């Protein structure tokens, strides 16, 4: 059996800016496995730089090739794969890509759509939008467009010194579900600044402090009325348990790649519900392949907030799937084909291809 890698570089319709920096294209790595006549696909959600975390594209490929691929030869169930690789520390995005490859394989083997195979699905995802930083007039125009298109939640990226966009948006749209994402740009000394955001009645502030912190988030939550959402700080179910135990979190942004796949994503969603918290599904600017896993997860009844699961057309003029997701009235329906239910457009994939490799298992 073999696992194939396809590294593609797809230009964004517009650059996407966060406190980490600006991305002008998505350099994605697609995994493909054929076993028993079943073609399974997944996407590594790393970037070409170690900016979101320590993993990046080259480390992920190397980790899969040297340490993870050998555990896939008999196509174990996803949770069995995670048990096999628990001795390999970290590298959740590499693990998650392989784990999700197995989800696609097993749901196709069972002849079921992934969202139904995973658990109790409502059949659709409630869709929010994440708007990157740019000048205020452009961001406001993107918000107007998103509201007119029916997105169920608007989230804008902020950083220290760029909070004024919140006031500008609230003045024009006093009733929309609005949240902000700091990507860890603030410190504990900025609490007075963050308290100023309370007056805007945000749904939450996402990841105000560093990704390796829980303690200061716990202290912050006692000082502000805005709910605290954690992203980078939650890397596994145990971290989610700790965050709720010490009062560091109200809402969790679940990114399957960040937490080593869908199995842990579901466990984290259960933990949030057990602790009267909330959760939603975030994205890593995925292609239609990675996005299919996010939509399947966001369709689960355990997921109660709209996520960053915008349709493909928001990011790419041409995706690498033939049946990209479409949004209608703030909702994207989960695919009902077997597995992830998307069909790879190999002509498009090869037009974006920058590197390919094969691992024999």
What are the segments in which pLDDT stays under 50 over at least 5 consecutive residues? Answer: none
Gross morphology is globular
Radius of gyration: 19 Å
Distance between the termini: 5 Å
Q: Based on helices, strands and strand pairing, what is the structural class?
A: alpha/beta
**Named CATH topology of the largest domain:** TIM Barrel
CATH class of the largest domain: Alpha Beta
- Which strands sit side by side, in order, in the main sheet? 5-6-7-8-9-10-11
What is the domain total for the residues? 2
**Relevant CATH superfamily of the largest domain:** Enolase-like C-terminal domain
Major β-sheet profile? 7 strands, parallel
Strand content is 15-25%
Query: What is the number of beta strands?
Result: 13
Report the helical percentage.
25-40%
The total of helices stands at: 12
Instruction: Round the mean pLDDT to the nearest integer and report it.
Output: 96
Structural notes for this entry:
By secondary structure, the chain is of the alpha/beta class. 33% of the residues lie in helices and 21% in strands. The strands form three sheets. A seven-stranded parallel sheet has the order 5-6-7-8-9-10-11. Strands 3-2-1-13 form a four-stranded antiparallel sheet, with helices on both faces. Helix 6 (164-172) links the parallel strand 6 and strand 7. The chain starts with a strand and ends with a strand. The model has no long low-confidence stretch (mean pLDDT 96).
Q: How would you summarize this macromolecular structure in one to three sentences?
A:
The protein has helices at residues 57-68, 78-84, 92-109, 114-118, 136-149, 164-172, 191-195, 215-223, 237-245, 262-274, 288-298, 346-352, and strands at 2-18, 21-35, 38-44, 124-126, 129-131, 154-157, 178-181, 205-206, 228-230, 251-254, 278-281, 331-333, 353-360. It is an alpha/beta fold and 361 residues long. It folds into 2 domains: 2-112 and 343-360, Enolase-like, domain 1 (2-Layer Sandwich); 116-333, Enolase-like C-terminal domain (TIM Barrel, Alpha-Beta Barrel).
